[in-house]
């Protein structure tokens, strides 16, 4: 299976009293698909997954799975835990309607690169669905060399990567040149999405695409079609939007803009996140229009 196109890592909307806003989540999921998203990611970082209760996580999954089934689009589910055993347990219990699981290196632990390979080898044995490895060293504190990324790509059961290396570094360039064709690479760093697509990424998982969904979908399509001039120009404009949306910790600005636009009932986020400032919200609203 090859993952292509734009996949939306949905925020979790809350009501004005702080409860899960189920209707708003369902509406949002339908809207992004209407606007050109090729798939949905539930319970990613952008969903504040670690701040949700187990019941809320289960409801989010049910809602997203129902929309994905109705719209016939893939559902990728974020699964994160501190150890290999607990991650394997969470994967084994995954909703059967999931198409893939998005799994980072456990944060804070800082295993060796050999440990990372052993971790994902063990997880593929436990997972009922293919894995998309979430490479995000600035959150996990575990950089990975090109050699390790290529070893991970060779593990049966690894369908691809969400690549969010914090830039286009040496490892990224070597990995993009040498990875097997069957390995999907999805751009996962909003600001660097266009350059990674230019290097051959097959798609993207971008929180920024809650806004301007159709334009982000077009960015992916243009790069995939080799229309570099148009893609580059659009990429520059969308990078400016991403800058504004990531001016404060994700997803606080995105939620504030969606609330201002009346697409979700409130800008509420859960601690330790704080609601977006009016300044950041104003700038993002302008760039989103
Ligand atoms: O939840 C996600 O998936 C994403 N998370 C990233 C982050 O919060 O660092 C941003 C990316 O756009 C998608």
TrEMBL record:
Keywords: Amino-acid biosynthesis, Cytoplasm, Diaminopimelate biosynthesis, Lyase, Lysine biosynthesis, Schiff base
This protein's record includes keyword Transcription: no
Subcellular location, record wording: Cytoplasm
Site entry (Part of a proton relay during catalysis), positions: 45
Main location: cytoplasm
Active site, per annotation: 134 (proton donor/acceptor), 162 (schiff-base intermediate with substrate)
PANTHER family on file: 4-HYDROXY-2-OXOGLUTARATE ALDOLASE, MITOCHONDRIAL (PTHR12128:SF66), DIHYDRODIPICOLINATE SYNTHASE (PTHR12128)
Subunit comment: Homotetramer; dimer of dimers.
Homology family: Belongs to the DapA family.
Name the UniProt record assigns to this protein: 4-hydroxy-tetrahydrodipicolinate synthase
Organism, scientific name: Actinocorallia herbida
Lineage, highest ranks first: Bacteria, Bacillati, Actinomycetota, Actinomycetes, Streptosporangiales
Gene giving rise to this polypeptide: dapA
């Amino acid at each position: 299976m090859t993952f292509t196109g734009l996949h939306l890592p949905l925020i979790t909307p809350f009501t004005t009293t702080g409860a899960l806003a189920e209707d708003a989540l369902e509406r949002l999921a339908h809207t992004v698909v209407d606007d050109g998203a090729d798939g949905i990611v539930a319970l990613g970082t952008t969903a504040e997954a670690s701040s949700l209760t187990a019941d809320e996580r289960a409801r989010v999954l049910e809602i997203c799975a129902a929309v994905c089934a109705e719209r016939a689009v893939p559902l990728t589910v974020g699964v994160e835990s501190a150890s290999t055993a607990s991650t394997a347990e969470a994967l084994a219990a995954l909703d059967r309607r999931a198409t893939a699981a998005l799994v980072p290196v456990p944060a804070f632990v800082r295993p060796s690169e050999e440990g990372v390979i052993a971790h994902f080898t063990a997880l593929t044995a436990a997972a009922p669905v293919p894995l998309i490895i979430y490479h995000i060293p600035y959150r996990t504190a575990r950089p990975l060399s090109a050699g390790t990324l290529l070893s991970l790509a060779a593990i049966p059961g690894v369908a691809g990567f969400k690549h969010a290396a914090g830039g286009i570094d040496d490892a990224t360039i070597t990995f993009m040149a040498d990875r097997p064709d069957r390995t999907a690479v999805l751009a996962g760093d909003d600001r660097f999405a266009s350059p990674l697509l230019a290097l051959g990424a097959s798609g993207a998982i971008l929180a920024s695409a809650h806004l301007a969904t159709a334009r982000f979908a077009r960015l992916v399509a243009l790069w995939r079609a080799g229309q570099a001039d148009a893609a580059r120009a659009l990429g520059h404009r969308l990078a400016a939007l991403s800058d504004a949306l990531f001016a404060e910790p994700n997803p606080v600005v995105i939620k504030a803009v969606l609330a201002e636009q009346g697409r979700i009932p409130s800008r509420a986020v859960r601690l330790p996140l704080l609601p977006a400032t009016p300044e950041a919200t104003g700038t993002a609203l302008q760039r989103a229009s």
